[in-house]
Amino acid sequence: MPTHLSAFFKKASQLFPWLGAVLSGFLLFAAFPPLEWSDSVWIALVPLFISAASVEPRRALRLSYVAGLVFWVPSVFWVMYVTVPGWIGLALYCAIYVVPFAAVVSWWVRRWGVESWSRNIVLMLIATATWVGFEYLRSVLFTGFAWNTLGTALYKNLPLLQSARWGGVYAVTAIIVWANAAVALTLMRFVRTRAGMARRAHPEIMLGLLAVVVALVQGLRSINRPESPTTPLRVAIVQARTPQMDYYMPEKFASINQRLGELSHAALRVGEPDLIVWSETAIPDELRSSFDSYELVYEIVTNGVPLLVGSMDTEWTDDGPRFYNSSFLVDTNGVVVKGYDKRHLVIFGEYVPLKNVFPFLSLVTPIQESFSPGRTSTVFRLESPPAAFSVLICFEDTVASLARESVRNGARLLINQTNDGWFDAVTEPRQHMMQCVLRCVENNVPAVRAANTGVSCYIDRRGRVYDVLDDGEGNTFVSGFRTSTVHVPDDDMALTFYTRHGDLFAQLCAALGLAAAGAAWTTSRGKREGKEAGADI
Questions:
Q1: For residue 385, is the peptide bond before it cis, meaning its omega torsion is within 30 degrees of 0?
Q2: How far is CA 471 from CA 266, 475, 480, in A?
């Protein structure tokens, strides 16, 4: 072969691992809105797996970080509507959690190869645990960001989704990664030992498919199994679609309340609800201190239907005021019977960390005052019909532990009050809604989502989304109301394994993944130091 052609093919071969990393990043991005090609997750990690296996661990780190950036930069672009530095910083941060997966694959393959199917099965286990473990760590470290976990992409695949009852969303993620590893290793074995592969069994792909089939069969059995007794509850969602800037303009407050009142009265006339739900901070001021807002609420509830109101709230202390993002249940006598203060605040969206130490951090966010976190979960109880529910405000439905705690405390319905009007009209609202589906399946309870703008809908215990409030053509950024029946389980409902034991599966994966990543780092570093010492001699 001519020298120039040889040099060309050598350079081209060096690009292939980078192309694989970029392809994996794109397929991961494509699995979620706005594209929502959910089935792409079944092969999304294959190019990265093969690319990482073809290079040394140090290069695999760079490859996988590029894959992470291609995944995360467009996936969370909606953050730029609030803060551009926050968007870039969040994407750079999330991409880090892709790196250990590729490092472990590279380390293992360079040490043991792919010729032995038994060792490949071990690699499938370790690779799966590493991805799942670091996905879990991303969800809990530094307040956590549990957004776009791989299992969430399959929110429409109800049979597979039922695995979340045992291991949370991470159990669904594990099935996906296991299948990806099986495909990648089968391809690599075929290429490296193609002479005899046609006549050999393929344990990797067989076990990969077996896990998917078992999960599907068990999921179908779970869906078809008779449910425990439930109580029908008619819930009316009111979505006002208040422009975000109107909340900062006192002259707009009256029109905001007027719109809420008109929609609520229409819901009372048409749907005969047992409960009306407004969105997060639906009223423009504070329910407990505003005469106008309370008068509106009183006029609605005295029609015989209680109202769940999203409102800001202030507590006056010796150290000054504390601000809360809250939800209040107002009964048919106009009494605020119970309230809940949001506990999991959004960094730079609801509070600025270390604001007194680093004042410049306030420049990356539009918020003027930081909220204080609530102290405990709240279980609200309706008397007629009897139903117990808890509220998750805004992104709290992405935090699995909050939903789980609420159900353990007695809630049998989750209500997510949110306002996605800060962001775009498609990507963020749909990504957000997908998270809530998993909370329902994990805990075997239904949910109601009431958004100011976003996706207002109902979700049943199996994860089926129904009665979405839209314009009939899929556009959910509309003003209106939707009434539907929610079947709320009784108090003696059997708790799922996940509700009882939490993220045990993910924590075990995190322990194994950290050990594998540590071994990969130690081994590759030792070899590098050995080469450097040899060079010095």
A1: yes
A2: 17, 6, 9
Closest CA to 186 of 212, 169, 171, 208: 208
Catalytic: which of 135, 286, 342, 396?
A: 342
Please report, for the chain, the start and end positions of each structural domain, with discontinuous segments joined by +. 11-225+504-518, 230-343+373-489
Strands (E), 170-264: 230-239
Q: What are the tens digits of pLDDT across the range 305-319?
A: 999 999 999 988 887
Q: Is 436 a catalytic residue?
A: no
Given 94, 135, 204, 280, the catalytic residue:
280
Tens digits of residue pLDDT in 448-486: 999 999 999 999 999 999 999 999 888 999 999 999 999
* pLDDT at position 302 over 50: yes
Is 440 an active-site residue?
A: no
Q: Is pLDDT above 80 for 6?
A: no
Structure tokens of 277?
């739900």
Tokens for 354?
A: 């270390």
394, 436, 457, 509: which is the annotated catalytic residue? 394
What backbone phi and psi angles, to 5 degrees, belong to 491?
A: -60, -30
According to CATH, the topology of domain 230-343+373-489 is Nitrilase/N-carbamoyl-D-aminoacid amidohydrolase (3.60.110)
Contacts of 374 by beta carbon, 8 Å cutoff, 6+ apart: 324, 326, 340, 341, 342, 343
Assess whether 280 carries a catalytic annotation: yes
Give the C-alpha distances (Å, rounded to integers) separating 65 from 48, 80, 123, 284. Answer: 11, 21, 21, 43
